[in-house]
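Please decode residue identities from the backbone states below.
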């Protein structure tokens, strides 16, 4: 059975048995917070539990590495919407040890794209258009520095008002232990 069918069969049972009721919440984050973190699968359930969050407590935004790559990209747009439309008051940037974006070999990733059928013509077109794939795909070298840089990108954004506290933390993906990199109250 394929993954789509597995999901649909489970979903039918989930809805029929009203298992959704335990997840009821409003669109407004109960704890008025935004979590911005990595998409690492180890953090899917660990991160909310390590922070004592239940469904509806926080807006959780994820991407590869938990890195803000553009001041007017989708991550910042989501953060701004969470603040101005959904009443979030604090932002937590949470990186993690052992992140794949800290050791990503961009040459190998580009080669995998080519091996999967992305043509060299496409790569040439991107290069001609001024897109440096190696730079675009590169993550970071140090998780502490990456968290600090993302915190500063948010904190210094022209559309973030000064009353928003922006914190930076690192989580251990094995134990859930948190360490503070930036205390947004100071």
């Amino acid at each position: 059975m394929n993954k789509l069918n597995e999901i649909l069969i489970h979903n039918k049972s989930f809805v029929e048995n009203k298992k959704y009721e335990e997840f009821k919440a409003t669109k407004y984050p109960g704890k008025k917070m935004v979590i911005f973190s990595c998409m690492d699968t180890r953090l899917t359930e660990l991160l909310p539990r390590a922070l004592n969050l239940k469904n509806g407590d926080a807006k959780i935004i994820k991407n590869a590495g938990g890195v803000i790559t553009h001041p007017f990209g989708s991550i910042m747009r989501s953060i701004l919407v969470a603040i101005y439309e959904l009443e979030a008051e604090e932002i937590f940037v949470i990186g993690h040890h052992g992140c794949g974006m800290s050791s990503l070999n961009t040459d190998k990733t580009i080669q995998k794209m080519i091996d999967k059928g992305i043509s060299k013509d496409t790569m040439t077109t991107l290069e001609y258009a001024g897109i440096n794939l190696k730079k675009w795909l590169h993550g970071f070298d140090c998780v502490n520095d990456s968290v600090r840089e993302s915190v500063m990108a948010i904190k210094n954004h022209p559309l973030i008002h000064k009353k928003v506290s922006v914190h930076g933390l690192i989580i251990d993906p094995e134990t859930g232990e948190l360490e503070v990199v930036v205390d947004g109250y100071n």
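Observation: The domain at 24-104+139-182 is CATH 3.40.1050.10 (Beta-carbonic Anhydrase; Chain A).
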